[in-house]
Structures are given as structure tokens and as C-alpha cells.
Amino acid sequence: MRWQCGTRFRGLRPAVAPWTALLALGLPGWVLAVSATAAAVVPEQHASVAGQHPLDWLLTDRGPFHRAQEYADFMERYRQDLQDLELKYLLQKQDSRIEVHSIFISNDMRLGSWFDPSWRKRMLLTLKSNKYKPGLVHVMLALSLQICLTKNSTLEPVMAIYVNPFGGSHSESWFMPVNEGSFPDWERTNVDAAAQCQNWTITLGNRWKTFFETVHVYLRSRIKSLDDSSNETIYYEPLEMTDPSKNLGYMKINTLQVFGYSLPFDPDAIRDLILQLDYPYTQGSQDSALLQLIELRDRVNQLSPPGKVRLDLFSCLLRHRLKLANNEVGRIQSSLRAFNSKLPNPVEYETGKLCS
Q1: Which spans of this chain does the record mark as coiled coil (predicted)?
Q2: Which residue did the predictor score with more confidence, 89 or 57?
Q3: DSSP per position, 272-304
Q4: In which region does residue 167 sit, left (phi positive, over 0), alpha (psi from -120 to 50) or beta (all else)?
Q5: N or C: which end of the chain has fewer CB within 10 A?
Q6: CA distance 135 to 153
């Protein structure tokens, strides 16, 4: 796929569209290979006016291959990503190749140090992509903590996780519904019986993978005990203990890691597409830009967290990674909806607001 370039960008002809890396999130490898092969063997003079290969539409959501059952099964089973069993194996080995290196921040505790877990502790992992990694967006596949308790401790860690997809304030994060519905639960693996250390891992896998920029972890503790009358496990809050002098033990967190991968991201190329909405370079380039932005919007929102309504992650991307104003984001979304309604078999869906 080639861009039609105006005088301002004469000579700049990228070989692929700026959203190709994000498009790969939803396409299996053989589809990308077929697309690349077709683009190589068809002469350039057969390209459409809008700069798109005439066969590209066959592989889109609106093409005929999309409705084939075999294609749908293949899309479900062989997405271009790590399979869940492969991911589980790499997590067991704590393979550093799938770790997304991030910055740990907390005013309440330090990694590797014992602390009193009676009160809530807040910690976070952040990437600060706008400062350190402006050319990447990041996908989370799993989150892992190594938690240690002192001997004979009856404490039970309880964690609340909030995920911020592309930056901004804490209010622009979504809550991870651990063990609700079909969402996965924490998996515990014993590491050192003497120190009572366990790896707590939640694996999102291909089904629940999502974008992330910052992960907020709120840690509190509850006391695990047995009810003598019913012989069932019950939990108390630490402040509810009748004997305040009773030693609750101490807790230590050795590691807090996010596993996933990073994707190339070119904000200038997306800004160039947005610029063509008002100032098209050639006849037809505006429609081409709108089609690419719609495809990008759908691919980004495809990784929305679970819920009755998808969250509008695309607006968060425009707001925080492209630094666009609210009115500009609203204008772009309105243009995309208006253009999409004119397409044959338009696909529209309701989204919830996440970023202000």
C-alpha cells in the first residue's frame, strides 16, 4: 500500500500504512502474507486512485472472506500472537523476552522490603511512553507479583488492579474485574516454602489482552480464619480484630512485572491522515484517509476491556499519544461516523467514554 504524496511530502513514500502494526493485532500471519504477496506481484499501475491495492478489501471485515466460517475459525484460533499455552509456559519460566520493562513507583513501600500490611498500599508500574518511548504502544498479556509472608501469618493479600491504556490521570483507568464472569482469576505458585513466597499471576491471554501505559495496584490484606461452628473459611479485616496486640505478621513484595509486547507507533503518520480530512493531497486521498482511520479505530477498540459497552480507547489514543484537544477528537469521531454510515454494510457499535 502506498500513499499519495503532495508537494509538502514529495519523495516520502512509506511502504506500508502507518497503522499496519496495529492492524496486525487482529490478522493471522497467513492473511498478512497473502496481502504482502499480492502487493508484490500486481503491477503498480493497477493500484486504485485512493492508493489502495484493489484486492485489499477482500481481507477486511467487510470483505467476503470475513463471513466464511473457516476464516472465522482461523481468526479465533490463530491470531498473530502468543497462544495461551505458550504464554503460560513462558510465564512459568519468567522469560524476560516477554517482560515489558517499566518503572515502579510507590510512596508506601519498597520492593524487597518487609512492611506492615494492615493498611492499604498503593503502587504502580508506568512506562512514560511520551517521554521515553514515543514510538511504541504496549499490550499487556499478564501481570505477576511475588508476595512473601512471615511464618504463621494468617494474612490474605487482596489486590485491586486499574489499567490506564495510553496515559493521563488515574480517573482515566478501568478496573480489572478479576474472577468476575469469564474473566480470569489469580493463579498462585509456591516459590519458597520456608519464606512462604508465592507468585501471583493473572493471565489475560489473547481473549482479554489490552493496551496499557500504567498499571495501578492497590494492596490490602484480610485475615484468613476458620469458623468453628460451620468449619468454613472466613475473612476479617485487620482492624476488626478483637485483640489488637495480636501479631498479624509482615508482608514483602519482591517483584511486580507486566508481561506482553510493544508495537511500533508513528504519531506523525496518524496526524498526516487527520490533516487530509481537511486538506486532501489528491482526489480520493480524503476517502483513503477516512478508511484507514476507521480501520485503526476499530482495531484499537477491539482491545477494549470486558463490559456491556466497549470503552472508546481510540479517543484515549488521540487525546494522550497525539496530544489532540477534546474538540478536535470529537470532530474526528464525528467525521468517521458520518463517513462510515455511507459505506455498504456499515459496522457501528456503541462505546463508553473513558478519557476526558
Answers
A1: 68-95
A2: 89
A3: HHHHTTTS-SSTTHHHHHHHHHHHHHHHHHTTP
A4: left
A5: C
A6: 46
- The answer to whether the CB of 215 falls within 8 A of the CB of 162 is yes
Could you tell me the domains of the chain?
Answer: 96-263 (2.60.120), 266-356 (no CATH)
Q: Give the mean pLDDT of 281-287.
A: 82
Beta strand 214-227 with 155-164 is antiparallel
Chain CA centroid to CA 114, Å: 32
- Which class for 313: exposed (0-12), middle (13-18), buried (19 or more C-beta within 10 A)? buried
Q: Which residue has the higher pLDDT, 105 or 31?
A: 105
- The single residue listed with the C-alpha cell 493471565 is 203
Q: What is the CA radius of gyration of the chain?
A: 24
- Confidence check: pLDDT of 282 > 80: no
Length of the chain: 356
Q: Give the global pTM.
A: 0.74
What's the confidence (pLDDT) of residue 1?
A: 40
Note whether 141 and 117 are within 8 A (CB). no
